[in-house]
Design a protein that fits this description.
By secondary structure, the chain is an alpha/beta fold. The protein contains six helices and five strands, in the order αβββαβαβααα.
């Protein structure tokens, strides 16, 4: 049940994130649009069709299940806070995340919980839970370095084996999905579920002279 819920939640959350990102200022969707060009001779109006984004998951009710994230805490610069937002405050990102979380919580009848660690060390509680067989976390948000170690250690299952994980959806980073494959399988991914992969972008500056 937990595997099904995790896949359902991830698919639903990422769909809502994608729709929010595609929303124009008037609330309309900016999903992929195909328009037929107007005939200049006849000045015909362009015909427009919009491809609707869907998560392709069934309607489900999980009876108030507490969905637990294992995440980095506030003692570092890269804390994961996205599922702890409990109110609107006028900030664009805060309010988009709040509305996303509220919609998913209502649709699946679940509650979000954050299990925080001090600093960066998601690895210790994650590894302990896996080796002891404790079924206490639904999603872990480790660093990419630790996530690679989990895959090498056999702690993770291929994402392709999860029924509702369609890695061709636009809310997954397609280039990362391709480049992070191990023997044709993916064990970790980047996506719109968190804003941290966008916050942690580094650049190089150099003097051309």
């Amino acid at each position: 049940m937990k595997a099904k819920l995790a896949a359902l939640l991830l698919a639903s959350v990422l769909l809502i994130s994608a729709l929010a990102a595609c929303s124009g200022s008037d609330g309309s969707s900016r999903a992929e649009t195909v328009a037929a060009g107007a005939d200049t001779a006849e000045t015909e109006a362009a015909e427009t069709t919009t491809a609707r984004l869907t998560a392709d998951v069934p309607d489900s009710d999980f009876g108030g299940y507490e969905f637990t994230f294992l995440a980095r805490g506030k003692k570092n610069n890269w804390e994961n806070y996205e599922f702890e937002i409990d109110q609107l405050d006028g900030d664009v990102i805060n309010d988009a995340l709040y509305e996303r979380n509220s919609k998913i919580s209502d649709e699946l009848n679940i509650a979000f919980k954050h299990e925080r660690v001090d600093g960066y060390d998601v690895n210790t509680p994650f590894t302990k839970a896996v080796l002891s067989g404790e079924d206490i976390y639904d999603v872990a948000l480790p660093s990419i370095t630790d996530a690679g170690k989990y895959a090498q250690s056999g702690y993770l299952v291929p994402l392709q084996d999860l029924k509702y994980m369609d890695l061709e959806k636009p809310w997954y980073d397609a280039r990362c999905i391709e480049e992070l494959k191990i023997n044709g399988k993916n064990y970790l991914f980047f996506s719109d579920i968190t804003v941290r992969n966008l916050d942690a972008i580094w650049i190089y500056c150099f003097n051309k002279q």
